[in-house]
Amino acid sequence: VADPDDFIRPLNIDIFQDETFVFTPKGDVVNLPAGATGIDFAYAIHTEVGNKMVGLKINGTIAPIDTALETGQIVEVITSNATRGPKRNWLNSVKTSEARNKIRQWYKKEQREENILYAKSEVDKMFRKLKGTQSEDERNEVLSNIAKRERFNSTDELLNAIGYGGVSLSKITQKIKLEIDRINVGDTTQTTKQVLTESTGDLTNLTGGVIVDELDNCKVKYAKCCNPLPGDSIIGFITRGHGISIHKYTCSNVVAGLANLETRDRFLSASWTKKSLEAVVASFESQINIVSFNTVHLLADISNALADMHVGVLSISSRMIDEDHILLIMTVKTRNTEHLNSIVSKLKRLPDITRVTRA
Asked: Residue 141's CB: how many other CB atoms inside 10 A?
């Protein structure tokens, strides 16, 4: 076995089921769980045997490939190099996790290029509808930043996930808009004081909340890319037509912006007021990433824990990391960093959860 996990994972699931013993034409014994089909048998022999399977013989007689096997039968797989690979409906017939995983892996791998091309086409349409970024380099930068935040190893991995439906196009639309705002740093004709004091449609009046460039009662907005909280070190950024955006000082966009000669002058000093640090109302959005075993009671456990702390949940999404683990991405209402840390600490104590982090 090339990877011991490929053997152990299905073994852990199947070992306690009733067993069926069948024979290859050469007399080798193949051990399968009760109810296993000819497809399970083929993948138990070899991945390529399963992928190239076109027919089945049981005791010398042609039979449907999804026939349930019985102990003592002699089973022969008919293969062809001309086949395009396993059928999706085989997933409804197989009984072993080994066969199911190999079929899924084939589809994810073999359709990767098609997935990426489709996603690129759809994302390009989205860019054309938005103003401000037209160059290929800018588009690549936007997608690269989103891929990193969504925990993908590369832009192609993100596009592949979009292509096969792992990530919806609507989900990344707002993220693309935010990245474009970061690149388009704005009109130099406005003075800093004008930007700080003029009211626009998407600004939040944070009276007594943030001090920017030594001016109190500024009209600002919080950056969605890092969701700063009272207690975080923060910095202001002059956006194009959207006033001042408040970021965590450690935000990747801030690091990149300060390193760029064209944007570094758009950053302004910012700090929290005492009033905001002592607030008792949970009015800030925070994103929490939870890695856990995928159990049936997971959401109930998390919901009960948050309810006990009177924490409101604004949104939740998930995606499978592997066969056993799931990533939950939650947006919750918090007061400050201390409040968020207490939420994270309580979630870490729940059974089956392996990691909880602030995004």
From this structure: 18
How do 219-222 and 244-248 pair as beta strands? parallel
d(CA 252, CA 276): 24
Q: What are the distances in angstroms from CA 149 to CA 81, 143, 144, 179, 354? A: 41, 10, 9, 12, 20
190, 181 in Cβ contact below 8 A? no
Residues in Cβ contact with 289 at an 8 Å cutoff, skipping those fewer than 6 apart: 151, 327, 328, 329, 330, 355, 356, 357, 358, 359
Structure tokens that stand for 131 in this block: 């103003």
Q: Tens digit of pLDDT per residue, the chain (359 long)? A: 445 455 544 544 444 457 899 999 999 999 999 999 999 999 999 999 999 999 999 999 999 999 999 999 999 999 999 988 888 789 889 999 999 888 878 877 887 887 788 788 888 888 887 755 456 777 888 888 888 878 888 899 999 888 765 677 777 777 787 777 665 544 433 445 555 555 444 444 444 478 887 665 566 788 888 889 998 999 988 876 567 889 998 998 888 888 887 788 888 888 888 777 777 677 788 999 999 998 889 999 999 999 999 899 988 888 898 888 999 999 999 989 999 999 999 999 999 999 999 98
Look up the pTM and report it. Answer: 0.44
Closest CA to 36 of 48, 49, 53, 21: 21
Which of 181, 274, 273 minimizes the C-alpha distance to 223?
A: 181
Strands of the sheet containing 234-238, edge to edge, are 204-205, 219-222, 244-248, 234-238, 267-272, 210-212
Q: Are 267 and 254 in contact (CB under 8 A)?
A: yes
What is the token pair recorded at 282?
Answer: 């949970």
- List of domains in the chain: 4-105 (3.10.20.30), 112-183 (no CATH), 192-277 (no CATH), 284-358 (3.30.70.260)
